Amino acid sequence: MTPASRSRRGARVGPLAAHAGMATALDTDALIDDPDRRIIVCCGAGGVGKTTTSAAIALRAAERGRNVVVLTIDPARRLAQSMGIEALDNTPRPVPGVAESGSLDAMMLDMKRTFDEVVESQASPAKAQQILNNPFYIAVSSSFAGTQEYMAMEKLGQLDKDARKTGRWDLIVVDTPPSRSALDFLDAPERLSSFLDGRFMRLLTAPARGPARMMTAGFGLVTNAVTKIIGAQVLRDMQAFVAAFDTLFGGFRARAQRTFELLQASGTAFLVVAAPEQDAMREAAYFVERLRAERMPLAGLVVNRASPDPGEGLSANAAMAAAEKLRGNGEDAALAAGLLKLHAARKLMVQREVRLRRRFATSHPDVPTAVLPALPTDVHDIQGLRRIGELLAHQD
Fold first, then answer.
1. Distance between CA atoms of 59 and 382, rounded to whole angstroms?
2. Which of 152, 181, 214, 217 is deepest in the core (most CB within 10 A)?
3. Using CA atoms, how far apart are residues 360 and 367, in angstroms rounded to an integer?
4. Considering the entire predicted model, what is its pTM?
5. CA-closest candidate to residue 245, choices 209, 207, 213, 211
6. Residue 192 — φ and ψ, nearest 5°?
7. Average pLDDT for consecutive 10-residue bins of the chain (396 residues)?
8. Which residues contact 56 (CB under 8 A, 6 or more apart)?
């Protein structure tokens, strides 16, 4: 079957989906084989396996003939280790060992460097240097809440522009920031630009902007009070930063809007990644609803680390009853009782996870879903990522 015919199949019905009460299973190969698919964004709560999922999808796409770059914002640097690269940075680097005819580059977002690149591209060399050397800019670009999410959007826009210009990549896979809400990156551009261009910031920096009419007695009291709190040098740094940065505000807003529109385009697909836990599935439901509210193209849900079913055998209740009957009958009986209780616990866990997936499917019946079983060991190399990709693809 050709990639084109696979891409037309869309989602499919499979035993895993049916077992969880779902209408369709996610067809990952159709998603990555579609030549019109240019961006895949993996989002979800922290700790659910977004980085591994992103890397596995990127590797599988490359080994099916796509030219892929995967962007991660993972501070644990697991992606570099699993892909056999000594270190990742803000520059896409080839991943060795990719089979077949495609290619795979990987990179890790450097928040500060990306911010510097934006400044350097938008300002004259002299003004750019003035901004880059400003202590307030250094603090904002390195640690301000929302800067990482904003720069992830900036880097995605840069990669897409580069890909269209050079043809180096035909697919970008994005691992979203590990923030409290995995959709913070949708709000980050407006939040950051609103802070930098906000009323309070403009009030504090009014002397740098120059209107003499602002220098009233009341304003003087405000600035004197603020100076006592944050210090005169910090206030001067803020004033100098905003005065130098003022001409760049429009460019930031315009690029943020372009990237937002890129995320809404038909060539983009969002995958929500979750763990089979109550809080994570609740977050996944929120992400699905938020993506739809923002008119973002949702491809499906990936449920990571599902407990493997111990098989038909005894039910949980029957296993617990059998274990009780063995109590007090010697060491061998105690061992058998322990195994029965373990079997019962695994059965109950699988049942709980299935209920959680079924509850999600009841509320969102049209969301294709892939369920990945928990593996006995962590994924730490190309072979492990390849295995994850295979499991994602073979949901039926």
1. 8
2. 152
3. 9
4. 0.81
5. 209
6. -70, -45
7. 38 44 81 97 88 94 97 73 81 89 91 89 89 86 75 89 96 82 65 59 52 44 46 68 69 78 94 94 92 93 90 76 75 79 84 93 94 87 93 87
8. 379, 385, 386, 388, 389, 392
Query: Is the residue at 214 inside a domain?
Result: no
Read off φ and ψ for residue 173, nearest 5 degrees.
Answer: -110, 130
Q: For residue 238, report the phi and psi dihedrals to the nearest 5 degrees.
A: -65, -45
* Structural domain total, the chain: 1
Contact 173, 73 (CB under 8 A): no
Q: Give the other-Cβ count within 10 Å of 276's Cβ.
A: 25
> Which domain range does residue 81 map to?
13-120+151-191+248-312+347-393
The answer to whether position 48 is within a domain reads yes
The CATH number given to whatever domain includes residue 165 is: 3.40.50.300
Rounded CA separation 194/306 (Å): 41
241's enclosing H/E stretch is: helix 232-245
From the list 279, 260, 276, the residue with the least C-alpha distance to 351 is: 276
Query: Looking at the domain assignment, is residue 38 inside a domain?
Result: yes
Separation CA 88–CA 83 (nearest Å): 10
**How many other C-beta atoms lie within 10 A of the C-beta of residue 247?**
12
**CB count in 10 Å sphere of residue 121:** 12
Sheet hosting strand 93-94, strand order edge to edge: 93-94, 103-108, 67-72, 171-175, 39-43, 268-274, 298-306, 369-373
What's the Rg (C-alpha) of the chain? 26
Query: What pLDDT is attached to residue 202?
Result: 57
- The answer to the question of residue 231 being in a domain is no
Distance, in Å, from the CA atom of 21 to the CA atom of 12, rounded to the nearest integer, reads 14
- Asked whether the beta carbons of 63 and 98 are under 8 A apart, the reply is yes
Q: How far apart are CA 224 and CA 235, in angstroms?
A: 10
